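The aim of this short unit is practical: by the end, you should be able to scan a pair of folded records and say something sensible about each. We start with the first protein, listed as its amino acid sequence and then its structure tokens.
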Amino acid sequence: MTLRKGDDLAGKVALVTGAGRNIGRAIARSLAAGGAAVMVNANTSEAAARETVALIEKDGGTAAHYIADVTDEAAVNAMVEATVAKFGRLDILVNNHTLRDQTPFEEMTYAKWRQTVGVILDGAFLTSRAAVPHLIEAGGGAIVHMGGQHGYTGGRRSAHVSAGKLGVLGMTRSMAHDLAPYKITVNCVSPALINTRGESGELAHARATPPIGRLGTMEEVAAMVRMLCGPDGSYITGQAIHMNGGGYMA
């Protein structure tokens, strides 16, 4: 991964959920390359979170990690407070956490539905609610929710994921209205057809080719998130930004 170094986020502090691997790791590294101190969150994989921190530090950045379940209100509150205690402030929140599951609707249990929607949507609510007072205290900031193409197109075996992702978009737009007076931007980046790998190491989109002719890279998604969190994104709020090589054209 080639990092674009800069000072666009110098003096800022970011919290990135689900940052142990793949897109979340790329986002954390990109924000750190821009000068932000980054709190790396993971739910269970502390080894992966530590690896992300080590990569950031190897690149000359500043980071720490915090293990927390984003659906646990007390744990989320403690994570945000730990971020502020560690780095002195909070300016950026990136809600990258998700739960990837494929279950046909006719086989889906209510427990599976609640678990998936809870991680995607409740997690974004809890982290945002805990972070907002600190962003206000900092004089403004940025919140980026990570959505997904299935929230717009639907998809087989993904009714629960689609519902959660589209719910995040609705929350994004309403939050953008409420938080604009505090100089806090809120946007939703929806990647698809990105060259990521599952926990078993397989490519997530091995056979898919969008109109642009290739899969996207995690670094391209991270660059968009970094732009939205910096001065170049200060006039962008309430938007759904699609990154899919033309796989879905809004």
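Turning to the second protein, read its sequence before its tokens, just as you did above.
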Amino acid sequence: MKNEVLVHNLSQKINLGSAVLRIMLASVLFPHGAQKMLGWFGGYGFEGSMNYFTETVGLPYLIALSVILIEFLGPLLLLFGYFSKVVAALIFMLFIGIFLTHTENGFFMNWFGNQAGEGYEYHLLVLAISLGIMVLGGGKFTLSTLFKKQ
């Protein structure tokens, strides 16, 4: 009986922790996606972002489109806890690519504008949080669990 209570308590804590990871990742990543898709928060919007990714960075159209969709729709799906593991995997794969393009700039973010570009510390956090969600799931308060009960 005592072991069952401990397992239940641990399960509840993991569920809550997963929910916190999912909601915080969605909250931090959504503004980046909204910049690219809608032009909010000082972003360039869909057309400007697509032009940057395809013409300046040289990404193929479908890859550029995927980046924008993952960063915009992914956080919305995470926020509501729908397909959390799949979305976390997509974000993880996206941020592996982003991480690799920032390694030459060093670890730290470019707070004072004296580096060649942004470092990769933020990207490491996104990778770790995404991995946690991939392993543990979305936790409590998700649309996925709501639909499973019906």
